[in-house]
Amino acid sequence: MSSNRRKKRADTAPTVRRGQSGRKRLSPELEGLARGEETRLRVPRRRAPRLRDPRASGLVPGVANRDARRVFDHRVNLILARKSENQDLADALAEAWAMRLWRGRSIASFEAFVADVLELSPDDALQSVKRTCSSLEIPADGLSDEAIAIWFRSESALLDADLEGRVRVAVAAGETGETIRLEVAVERAPGALHHIGRRLTPLMRDQEPPRDASPPRDSRPARSAEKKKRS
After folding, report:
1. What digits encode the pLDDT tens for the residues 166-202?
2. How many C-beta neighbours within 10 Å does residue 188 have?
3. CA distances from residue 55 to 62, 101, 106, 131 in whole angstroms, order as listed
């Protein structure tokens, strides 16, 4: 009987125990789950960048569809009103080209927007845009998606608050960074900045680094110990 036990012990492979340095440590979230301190795995959520809009029906990246349509309708009405009064449309066309206004109503291109909505010659409109962009400090290669989103959101905020003002994005001569420019009466500036700030808050949050859903486990005992000492 004893010989069989010795034989089994000899056939069994020896257990090799690794030191702490050779082990792969789990993340704090998984360690808490393994110890039974957590009932579910807490994984910090990452916000998808607002300007990389995954919406299949999104009109303008980083802009709600209702805001895009609101700005489109407002600007088109202004352009058509100027057209009926034979006023100069150069600035309005250049800004419409810079902010890709036609996307507010899912129109394919600037040329289609000018021909079908404004009933103007696309060739003449493009020539006007090329002449006017430099005077408005609009880069020839257009604006970034971030600048366009800020432009749409800011103008929509003024429209919703029924505040008169002008918003545009430009790049000053000799500079590379885009700047937003707001023209509004001094007495209405606090309200305008308030509403624009609220409308731009989602874009600011998307630029912040993700935060953990809960503090590290190692910090909790230290906090409780400090409270006992103070008490």
Report:
1. 998 988 766 778 998 999 999 999 999 999 999 988 8
2. 14
3. 10, 19, 14, 35
H-state helical runs in the chain: 2-11, 28-34, 65-84, 90-98, 110-112, 122-133, 145-160, 189-207, 219-230
Total of domains in the chain: 1
Residue 227 counted as domain residue: no
Domain of residue 137 covers 65-202
For residues 123-157, one letter each, b for 16 or more C-beta atoms within 10 angstroms of the residue's C-beta and e for the rest, the string is eebeebbeebbeebbbbeeebebbbbbbbbbbbbb
Whether 159 is covered by a domain: the verdict is yes
Q: Residue 118 is encoded by which pair of tokens?
A: 């404004």
Structural domain includes residue 22: no
Count Cα neighbours of 181 within 13 Å in the Cβ-side half-sphere: 12
44 domain residue, yes or no: no
Can you tell me whether residue 123 is helix, strand or coil?
helix
pLDDT at 171: 86
Give residue for tokens 């429209």: 159
Exposed / middle / buried, residue 38 (Cβ in 10 Å: 0-12, 13-18, 19+): middle
pLDDT digits (tens, 9 = 90+) for 46-103: 444 455 666 767 899 889 999 999 999 999 999 999 999 999 999 999 999 999 999 9
